Amino acid sequence: MTVPLLVSLLVAQPPAVERVRVDWLLPEGCPDQAALTTMMREAIGQDRAFTASVRVDEPQTPGRPWRAVVTTRGPDGAARLRAVDAPDCARVTEAAVLVLTLAATAMPEAHGDEGGPAVLPPPPPVPDQAPPAPDEPPPASEPEAGADGGPARWLRPNLRVQLLGVGTLGVLPTPGGSVGVGLAFAFGRLRVEAALLFWPETRAADGRRGARFDVTSARVRGCWLFEPADAWFLGPCGGAEVAFVRATGLGVTAPTPIETTPVTVQGGLTAARALSPLFRVFGGLDLGFNVVQPQYVLGTPTGAVAVHRTGLLSGRLTLGLEVYLP
Predict the structure, then answer these.
(1) Which of 58, 64, 60, 52 lies closest to 27, judged by CA?
(2) Residue of higher predicted confidence among 152 and 322
């Protein structure tokens, strides 16, 4: 009698009902859809019925993040859409799973009319195309003029504020450094940067006599960025820097300040890594040709004493942080 009873109990069990269904539209190389859905089911549990759809798009513009558009159905049956961004497909799908889990756990427990599992409604449709990010250039098929009558969006520069430190060799008697602020304008792969740099006081003395140098400089340069690798950006740069130097004699009775404006033409490489959509760290290494090479001479009762002469070449190492202004 035991075996027939067990068989009858097994037959009486209700058929398994699918509780979680997510339609994924993923590019090649993204995580497996089955693994993502299994992760969803384990996070949601067995007391809720939930349907959704997710579309993941690879960025069309170098340096832009991956984007996942998540469409869910709320308790009222209305479709709700949310977009999330991340540096690569693995992380953007993880973010999408988190959005789905939060949306599903906010749903009330679902049961059928007789206390059994609820029948799943059809998933919301997958969007044909993910909406663009606020600062992403429009597709080439869009008209050149903006919606407000202004220039096309790809012509509008992406503005970033820079905080930077620069180490310099070959301008003053000793290696020096400066700190400053700057602006960077990005037009696609082209970047135009302008910065104002403040140098600490530098002294060059031979015994009791010498000179004190007070320097402020301004530089402008342009960079062309190669195709980014992951979140890294690399490219060549060229530009110029003008320094405003005030040299004052030390150890003399009546020092007369001398003001000069050395000019340097620079070329080198820049590299940057995106920490988030808003923040990026960057660095640069430049070799400079000093077009103007002033000589600083100290007049003494026994004759003129050369304190410093700017060399033909100079070098600069730049490190900084930039913040994107949407």
Answers:
(1) 58
(2) 322
Helix ranges restricted to H, 143-300:
none
Read off the tokens for 120.
Answer: 């799943």
Question: Where do the H-state alpha helices sit in the chain?
Answer: 2-12, 33-44, 89-105
C-alpha span between 225 and 212 (Å, rounded): 39
- Cα three-residue angle 132-138-141, rounded to 5 degrees: 125
Furthest C-alpha separation in the chain? 126
Burial of 320: CB neighbours in 10 Å, binned 0-12, 13-18, 19+: buried
Tokens 């407000």 locate to 148
Residue range 112-167, pLDDT digits in tens = 444 444 555 666 666 555 555 444 444 433 334 444 444 444 444 578 899 999 99
* Bridge partners of residue 245, in order along the sequence: 215, 260
Place of tokens 């342009």: 222
pTM of the model: 0.53
pLDDT tens digits, 35-88 = 777 777 776 666 666 778 888 888 877 678 888 888 887 666 677 888 888 888
**261, 239 contact by CB (below 8 A):** no
